[in-house]
Amino acid sequence: MAPAPRALTLILGGARSGKSRFAEDLALRSGLARTYVATAQPFDDEMAERIAHHRERRDGGWTTVDAPSDLATALAASAGGTRIVLVDCLTLWLSNVMLAGRDVEAAIDELVTGVSLLTGPAILVSNEVGSGIVPENALGRAFRDHQGRLNQRVAAVADRVTLVVAGLPLDLKLPKEP
């Protein structure tokens, strides 16, 4: 089988919007071998249940890579060839970066550079957090601002950007015609 061409898709949506399921369906329809790069960490029982639910929903055709913080490296190692990579999600990755006290802008730069250099198809899932109320504390506002900038930067290098609302996809950016 010939290597799959590079195609970067960003799937945005709010909490429980159906964005992860939509992204998984896209990966399945590609017909390629699938790698799921998970960024969640089970800090509590509720998050452990969410992670288990996501794992149960995927069939045995997925290879799972846990990458809560070093996402650029995990993507570089997983992408290319005849494989599609799905990252779920950039929002949890950003939370992990912030909680670790890392330089957020440097981490975003590294990630955006990394996804720009991918040689195979990838789907990145991220939450759209800018449509809600202004968070009441400084950490919440900083997170919202970083998330908005991260989404903008990834959208700029993505070939396709889709917003999922109530399980319905709305294409915001489509690949340019050759």
TrEMBL record:
Keywords: ATP-binding, Cobalamin biosynthesis, GTP-binding, Kinase, Nucleotide-binding, Nucleotidyltransferase, Transferase. GO terms for biological process: cobalamin biosynthetic process. The keyword Acyltransferase does not apply. Coiled coil: none annotated. Its EC number is 2.7.1.156, 2.7.7.62. Pathway: Cofactor biosynthesis; adenosylcobalamin biosynthesis; adenosylcobalamin from cob(II)yrinate a,c-diamide: step 6/7; Cofactor biosynthesis; adenosylcobalamin biosynthesis; adenosylcobalamin from cob(II)yrinate a,c-diamide: step 5/7. It catalyses: adenosylcob(III)inamide phosphate + GTP + H(+) = adenosylcob(III)inamide-GDP + diphosphate; adenosylcob(III)inamide + ATP = adenosylcob(III)inamide phosphate + ADP + H(+); adenosylcob(III)inamide + GTP = adenosylcob(III)inamide phosphate + GDP + H(+). The active site is at H54. It comes from the Bacteria. GTP binds at residues 13-20, 38-40, 55-58, 88. GO terms for molecular function: adenosylcobinamide kinase activity; ATP binding; cobinamide phosphate guanylyltransferase activity; GTP binding. The keyword Electron transport does not apply. Pfam families: CobU (PF02283). NCBIfam families: PRK05800.1. Catalyzes ATP-dependent phosphorylation of adenosylcobinamide and addition of GMP to adenosylcobinamide phosphate. Belongs to the CobU/CobP family. This is Bifunctional adenosylcobalamin biosynthesis protein. It comes from Chenggangzhangella methanolivorans. The gene is cobU.
